[in-house]
Amino acid sequence: MTPAAAAPDLAYEALGEAFRIGGRIPIRNRVFAAPMCGASKLPYRRLARRHGADIAYTEMVKAYPLVRDDRKTKELLVTAPDEAPCGPQICGGDPDTMGRAAAVLEAMGFPLVDINMGCPVKRVVNEGAGAALLKDPAKIEAVVRACVQAATVPVTVKLRSGWSHQGHADAVTLVRAAEQGGAALVCIHGRVRSQHHEGDVDFDAIARAKQAVSIPIVANGGIESAEDALVMVRETGCDAVMIGRGAYGRPWLFRDVARALTGRPPLPPPGWEGICDVMEEHLEGMLDLLGVVGVRLYRKYASWYFRDLPWGAHFRDRAYRASEPEVMRALLRDWREHARACEAAAATGERPPVPAFLVGDPRAADPFPARPGDDDEDGTCE
Question: Is 119 a catalytic residue?
Fold first, then answer.
C-alpha cells in the first residue's frame, strides 16, 4: 500500500542538515523513532518518518537467527523505499556473530547498523546481550569493532546510562568504549537497567557522556511532548532526541518535536478526522504487510488511539475481540462517528452521547473506566 499524502495539519518541512551519521546519513529534524519490540513494524515506521522522524528503527532482532537466515527474523526487517533511511537494530553478545549479522544487514541494503546494548528484558540479559553489555565496557568495544570491521555502513549503538547507579561503569565509560570501537553515533536512554522505563531520566549522565566523545549523542527517555524534547536538549546538550513510547498513538509527536528543535512555531494539534485517517492507514498497512494476522497485531495499536475520548476503553475491548479485517474496519468507522459526536458535543457544551453499541449497557455509566495496562511493556526495548 502506498501511504496517503499527509494531511495539512500533520505536515512538516525538512530543513538543512544538522549533522551526518558517519559522514553519510543526513539528519535534519534531530528526532529519531526508537526501536520497540512489538511496535516498530513497517506501517508504524512509515508514519513516524512522514511526520518528521529522520530515522525510524526496526524492531530489535537477534544476531544468531539472522545469520542463520531465519525466516521470522527476516520478516521483522521488511522495509520499503518510502521509509528510507531505515535503521535495523541487532542484539547479541558474541563479537563474531554480531559482525556477521552486520554484514548480512548491509547486504540487505540497510544504510546503517544499530546495536542494542540497553534492552532490560531478563531473557535477553541472560543471554549476555542487550543491557548485559553495560557491565563490560571492553565487550562493548569488541562488539562494536567487530561490526565496524564487517560492514562498510555506519555502526551506531543504543545503550543506557548504566547497569545500576553504583558499582558499575558510568555513561562516560560506556560511550567512550563504543566510540573506541568505531561507533558513528550513540543513543543514550537516560535510565539504568533496573529502572526499565520508570523513574527520572538522568540528564547529567547524558550531558557528561556528550562532553566525553566527539561523535553525535542522541538522548532518549521520557519524551512525551515538544517541551520535554527542548528540556532534554537544554539539559544534556545532545545532538538529537529519540522518541519511543511517547509517540504511541501520536505519530504527530515527531512533527511537534521536529518543529520545536529546529525553531519553527508549533502547529495546532490534529483534529479527529485526521487522527481517524491515520488509524485507518495504520490498519491497512498492517493488513498489507501481514494479511489477517495484521488484525490481531493491530489491536495493540488501536488501544493507543482509543485512549483520549469517553468510552474509548470500551472500543479498545471490542478491538481485542476483533479477528477479521472487516470487523476491525467497521470498528474504526464506528470510532470515527463517535469522535465526530464527541467533537460536536464539546462545541455546544453538551455531554458526549453514549456510543450506539453501549446504549442500554450498564457499563455505559462510566465513560472512563479504570484500565489495566494493555501494552506489552516487557517486550519494549526502547
Answer: yes
